[in-house]
Design brief:
By secondary structure, the chain is mostly helical. The chain is 76% helix and 2% strand. Helix 4 packs antiparallel against helix 5.
Length: 312
């Protein structure tokens, strides 16, 4: 009978294999000429700026795990949560089904560092909630801050934008309220014990900043192909990211591009989206996958379990 440990090992192996395959298959969607033309059309300064924002996003993502570990009242060094976060998300972003793919990778790290299965599940859940809070908060900011008289964001009027922005703001607002009163939220067998208010504020802040950095990276690349505002890019990205999450397509492959092309005018921006996919998905994967494999080899030579105190 296959135990839970072996199932998780198989899940990790499957995620690694799929990730390696996607590097090959996903780049194969575009001809060399398409990739070359897109790269040549974008000035080096724009590519460098986009890469800085991509790096800032992944730095924010390490904050997801750092706060999550604090939420379960464990003490780990930042280098540990950063390693687990980067390996998990560089693979999970490309494989899809992030809760399973990145969750399996996180389990490999955190179980070695003394967290129980229940605590790891809370870490994964906390990070997932941070994603939702960040997307909702950025959408609210885009809708409520871009309210000039000449703004035609998505073709909706100012009153409609305000209403939609306030609706998006409702999720983080409710989350803060339940954090103030520490009211557990129950849904069937699932239970959420809200974090302290300070942790919840940091959670919303880091989640929003992460997606704002991603949108900034895309904007740096798209601005080369025409006049387009940061708010337009951020709004389109939030919509596309929600569609990609719902679809569970690996890396949102095709979903991200199709949604943004449907929202934003012009077809030339496909070059920017190709460049963005390379910078945000493939470059981290090319780094994260061998890093994860190296860590597996390292810990297999040291089979005993580390506590959070021994490595903190």
């Amino acid at each position: 009978m296959i135990g839970r440990k072996h199932i998780l090992q198989l899940a990790v192996l499957a995620a690694v294999c799929i990730a390696a395959f996607l590097v090959y298959r996903s780049l194969g969607r575009y001809t060399f000429d398409e990739v070359a033309d897109a790269a040549e059309a974008i000035p080096l300064a724009r590519l460098a700026a986009a890469m800085v924002f991509v790096a800032a996003s992944y730095l924010c993502l390490t904050g997801f795990d750092t706060l999550a570990v604090r939420y379960v009242k464990k003490t780990l060094a930042w280098r540990q949560t950063a390693l687990a976060s980067f390996c998990a998300l560089s693979i999970g972003h490309n494989v899809g089904m992030a809760a399973l793919s990145s969750g399996a990778v996180r389990y490999r790290f955190y179980s070695r560092w003394g967290l129980t299965g229940g605590e790891i599940a809370k870490v994964i859940g906390f990070c997932g909630i941070t994603v939702g809070l960040g997307l909702s908060s950025l959408a609210a900011l885009v809708l409520l801050l871009d309210l000039g008289p000449d703004t035609e964001l998505f073709g909706i009027g100012q009153d409609a934008r305000i209403a939609a922005g306030l609706a998006c703001l409702l999720l983080p607002a409710v989350y803060l309220v339940i954090s103030i009163f520490r009211v557990p939220v129950r849904l069937r067998k699932w239970r959420l014990d809200p974090p302290p208010l300070g942790l919840a504020v940091l959670q919303i802040g880091i989640g929003t900043l992460n997606f704002a950095c991603v949108a900034a990276a895309i904007h740096q690349l798209m601005a080369v192909f025409g006049s387009i505002t940061y708010f337009e890019v951020a709004g389109a990205y939030v919509t596309a990211n929600v569609a990609a999450l719902v679809s569970h397509v690996p890396g949102g492959l095709g979903v991200l591009e199709a949604t943004m092309l449907g929202i934003l005018p012009g077809t030339k921006i496909i070059g920017a989206l190709v460049a963005f996919r390379v910078l945000y998905f493939f470059v981290p994967l090319i780094i994260g996958l061998p890093t994860f494999l190296a860590s597996e080899a390292y810990y297999r030579r040291r089979p005993y379990r580390f506590s959070e105190h021994s490595m903190g």
